[in-house]
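# step 3/5: fold
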Amino acid sequence: MHSSGSALVLTMPNPHKSEATRNHAPFADGDIVVFYDRRRRRYRVPLQVGGSYSSHLGAINHNDIIGRTEGFIAVTSKGHRVTALRPTFQESIYELPRQSQVIYPKDLGALLIRLDLYPGASVIEGGLGSGAASAAILRAIGSAGSLTTYEIRDGIIEAAKANIQQLTPESNQHKIVVADVYESGFAERNADRMLFDLPEPWLAIGHAAISLRSGGVLAVFLPTVLQVHRLCTALMSDPRWRLVETAEVIERPWHVTDTSVRPEHRMVAHTGFITTARRCELFDERVEDNTEAEQTLKLELGAESRSTSEDE
């Protein structure tokens, strides 16, 4: 990692209407529609007035979609029926253009729960990636929360910002800081939660302990077990971190019809490990041992004194 000098701070704009308002409204020019055929294959289409979408199933005029609310059946020029829906957050993540590895929805869901995110929380993120984790955090903390993301790679920021705006267009509580967290750490103090998607997170846990409030949660996403081992060793050797835990999420879909129930032939197995830890007050174990020894000694001396008095 190199030093970036003074940190560059980028604030996300908020030019769009809310996600709730948009999802309840009819399709409009510029919206994204997803067509599902009878085999559940997806066709993601940006709508444009006067436009047309063609595939092996036939053509669909965009004007026939614009002005209608999602959940209806459209018929192609070849007579095939497709279901028209807005993409879910999960589906949108799969379709994101990316310049770095994305954290997949199965892991994002577990991260949100293990981080114990809540509306109004202040969150620090180390590593921007493709922006999927940032968008998921922004949805969880709401307009009263705040997210500050640290990223050293200038080249990925604009693409990630575009992804975040697509996934959470109404969010304006996001700040991106271009800096090297290994060297300079984090400017914030008393943050509620922290998420790391960094190649060497053990180099930043000391800085994290300074910026995270007592009782706060740190979550780290790593792809390999060797990285996990090094991280956990560092966390467990620092008395400011407690309750260190690691897990992975394996997702196995099932094929269910009226005549059979079986696992699907393909599944999403290992994608990464999630390690969590709680920030706690620094406590010197030696003080506790000494205090207990002193109390034990006092009890023993008191017992001896009473015994001597009785003998006399």
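# step 4/5: annotate
The chain has a mean pLDDT of 87.
# step 5/5: archive (pending)
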